[in-house]
Model the fold of this input.
Amino acid sequence: MINIAILGFGNIGSGVAEVIEKNQAEIKNVLGDNLHVKYILDIRDIPGVVNDINIIVNDPDVKVICETMGGKEPAYTYTHLALEHGISVCSSNKELVDAYGVELSAIAREHNCSYLFEASVGGGIPVLRTIREAFGHEKVSRIAGILNGTCNYILTNMKAGKDFADALKEAQEKGFAERNPAADVEGHDTARKIAILASLVSGKKFSYEQVSCEGITNVTQQDIKDAEAQGMSIKLLGVYEAETQSVNVAPYLVPASSPLYGVNDVFNGIMVTGNMVDNVMFYGRGAGKLPTASAVVSDVIECAKTLGRNVKDGLEDLEPVASVNAPAKPDGQKFRVL
Ligand SMILES: NC(=O)c1ccc[n+]([C@@H]2O[C@H](COP(=O)([O-])OP(=O)(O)OC[C@H]3O[C@@H](n4cnc5c(N)ncnc54)[C@H](OP(=O)(O)O)[C@@H]3O)[C@@H](O)[C@H]2O)c1
Done:
């Protein structure tokens, strides 16, 4: 039996426990052993839940920790501590990966354990693992992704006739958007994710703060109609271009011929272009309790299969890029065309 701990028993953390419980047989089949949640740490006083990270990291039985707390602190301190104790950490926390991923990756290597973060980009879509394992030999020229389900839901509903405010209100009522939706609608969430993707394929560390970021708050009903008249859809994209070393987030006009055109509602779509493989399209649920938890569990299984060793995470020794370009907008146009 492989003992694990979950830090932060919210949406995703409780989802991890549920995936492990419901898919025990499948996990045993792929891992050759059972996963057992020995500890849950949360700030709340829930029976059976611990509040002290030291209890967890000082228990030699604990082999893998899931960090599903979110935010920079105490997630950074706890992750650091776990890795120093040789305990692998699997994270859904894009903010932490963006800010400290390179450093945490190095600590994991030093202590023969792993820092994996599949769930931090694209929720349940196994895009990071595929990039790491199947695209290592490719020269990736471009990544274009619909990476925020809330924005995509709002834009899909605007296309169906709602205005921005009503579409946002509906997303909030259905639980897709936070009460404070700024990180989503202003593009910051997408910026964090495209910065992580760009870092994995470029061999340089792109940071979220360097990414030129325009959200969807200025997209009007008229813009959507104009796009439709041209046979296009407006989608909030995070785009990385290798040739110009540019990374940006903005609403784009997406032609009907693109596979991203048909990615609607809360779904995410990520198109990766390699010099040999050409376009590869990833599609699925980019958020939500069980899809995201499933991605965390896929990392846990990888760590459990490789105990005492470091799994390459793609952030090894990345140097920060000096500056990040944004592609120019066509003269007089409100939107770039994909
Ligand atoms: N929700 C999604 O669909 C989704 C998708 C992809 C990635 N993620 C990422 O996954 C992470 C978790 O998201 P979530 O939606 O599960 O958030 P959440 O529901 O708010 O869960 C976070 C949990 O961690 C607890 N926590 C916060 N600070 C803590 C501390 N100092 N010590 C111990 N526990 C603490 C919270 O307790 P309180 O509630 O008492 O604060 C809460 O139970 C975030 O990084 C998020 O970006 C989420």
About this structure: The first helix runs from residue 11 to 22.
